[in-house]
């Protein structure tokens, strides 16, 4: 039996009939299959064990899977991801591929196609693994420092933040480089030789997030089989980076506020108080002021973390830095001499880059993998040049307009109920209100 035939696949769909159909077929084809019905179950299973491939329905009861793809790709870079939808729209397929999906299937799914796509995705995953192993051996590149006014302003503020000792708040779009800047601040601070600990608050909820932050005592809850120190303890003396703090649950926000004020905390299920003195850097792609007005973020916590805000510019704000950034990313990816075809460079210059630096890196990395050591050609950039995979701007589909169509459909589906529409779209109510307001202005 080939290595691929023993691959472990996670099937996520809220329809039990479809889960059973996929599972039975893939099991007969030699795959090891597990299933989940929503994002919460999917996250739990992905935390518990390793999967080689993910078959993921786009619309689930607890959100839109399209909004989770970048996080999934970042956390599981070698995992094959096949997205399944009942809507066969070109703009949705383009968006899915842009965010890191390996393949995109429309319902009703041809099971033979599903197997072919899974095996292709597994082959691509094997290439990713080898590439990642190579990357670990390559000398780490320092972060790219752009020359645009917006980037220079950001770095001036970052240097001031590194010298200070108060909380820092990084604000900017997804993929703009907030995590890279957070690490730069740590490495240029007096805490540079101490731990740097990070967590994405959008990937864990409630008890799971609290357990990661505060730790827990044995027996504190069903799965707490042993004592576990939290990230607060691990960050003592160093820096704690909370990515996407706007997605932190209100209950955890209240607990964390006390930690900021007193530098003391308790593990879950324990009465003993512990202390931790850490530098705090937070990041968000939300408008925290708006979240406060919607009672989705505590105002007192906002005042504490917003002591030193820094705007991280999008690629649209720093287009003059695109050529230098491309060269930097190619060096970082171990291909310093690679040349981008002129047609692709023109596409790059015209594209909106909604996923910012992360999207650009994904496009370059995918091209290098497809080239397999040969010179880069136009065909190695399918998401940028092929007739059925052009970026939304080239298809005449403005990304904001395609997003607006999804929002209109969700509002129609739930009779104008914004709370339910936001949940179905996988975004917060505050984000939905902000995007609706942007469409009116």
Indicate the CATH architecture of the largest domain.
3-Layer(aba) Sandwich
- The CA-CA distance between the termini, in Å, is 59 Å
The side-by-side strand order for the widest beta sheet comes to 2-1-3-6-7
Can you give the helix content as a percent range?
40-55%
Rounded mean pLDDT is 82
- Under CATH, the topology of the largest domain can be stated as Rossmann fold
Which structural class matches the secondary elements? alpha/beta
What is the CATH superfamily classification of the largest domain? P-loop containing nucleotide triphosphate hydrolases
Task: List low-confidence stretches.
Answer: 1-5, 385-402
Described by the principal axes of the CA atoms, the overall outline is globular
Note the beta-strand portion: 5-15%
Q: What is the CATH top level name of the largest domain?
A: Alpha Beta
Total helical elements: 20
What characterizes the major β-sheet? 5 strands, parallel
Number of domains: 4
Our Rg estimate from Cα atoms comes to 22 Å
């Amino acid at each position: 039996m080939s290595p691929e035939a023993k691959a472990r696949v996670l099937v996520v769909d809220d329809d039990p009939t479809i889960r059973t159909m996929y599972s039975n077929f893939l099991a007969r084809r030699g795959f090891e299959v597990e299933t989940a019905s929503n994002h919460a179950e999917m996250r739990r299973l992905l935390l518990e064990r390793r999967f080689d491939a993910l078959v993921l329905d786009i619309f689930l009861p607890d959100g839109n899977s399209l909004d989770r793809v970048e996080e999934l790709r970042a956390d599981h870079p070698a995992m094959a991801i096949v997205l399944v939808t009942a809507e066969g729209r070109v703009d949705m397929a383009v968006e899915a591929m842009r965010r890191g999906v390996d393949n995109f299937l429309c319902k009703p799914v041809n099971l033979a196609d599903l197997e072919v796509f899974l095996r292709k995705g597994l082959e691509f995953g094997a290439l990713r693994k080898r590439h990642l192993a190579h990357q670990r051996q390559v000398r780490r590149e320092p972060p790219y420092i752009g020359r645009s006014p917006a980037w220079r302003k950001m770095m001036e503020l970052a240097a001031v933040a590194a010298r200070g000792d108060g909380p820092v708040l990084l604000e900017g779009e997804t993929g703009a480089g907030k995590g890279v800047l957070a690490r730069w601040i740590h490495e240029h601070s007096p805490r540079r030789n101490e731990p740097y600990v990070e967590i994405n608050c959008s990937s864990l909820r409630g008890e799971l997030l609290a357990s990661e932050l505060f730790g827990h005592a044995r027996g504190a809850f069903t799965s707490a089989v042993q004592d576990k120190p939290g990230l607060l303890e691990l960050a003592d003396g160093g820096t704690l980076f909370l990515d996407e703090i706007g997605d932190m649950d209100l209950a955890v926000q209240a607990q964390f506020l006390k930690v900021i004020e007193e530098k003391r905390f308790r593990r879950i299920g324990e009465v003993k108080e512990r202390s931790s003195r850490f530098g705090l850097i937070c990041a968000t792609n939300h408008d925290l002021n708006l979240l406060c007005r919607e009672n989705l973020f505590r105002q007192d916590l906002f005042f504490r973390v917003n002591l030193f805000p820094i705007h991280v510019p999008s690629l649209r704000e720093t287009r003059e830095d695109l050529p230098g950034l491309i060269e930097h990313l190619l060096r970082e990816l171990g291909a310093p001499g690679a040349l981008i075809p002129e047609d692709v460079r023109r596409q790059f210059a015209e594209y909106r880059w909604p996923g910012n630096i992360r999207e650009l890196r994904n496009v370059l990395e995918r091209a290098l993998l497809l080239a397999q050591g040969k010179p880069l050609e136009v065909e190695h950039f399918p998401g940028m040049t092929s007739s059925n995979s052009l970026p939304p701007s080239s298809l005449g589909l403005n990304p904001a307009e395609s997003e607006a169509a999804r929002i209109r459909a969700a509002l129609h589906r739930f009779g104008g109920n914004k709370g339910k529409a936001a949940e179905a779209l996988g975004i917060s109510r505050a984000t939905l209100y902000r995007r609706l307001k942007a469409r009116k202005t």
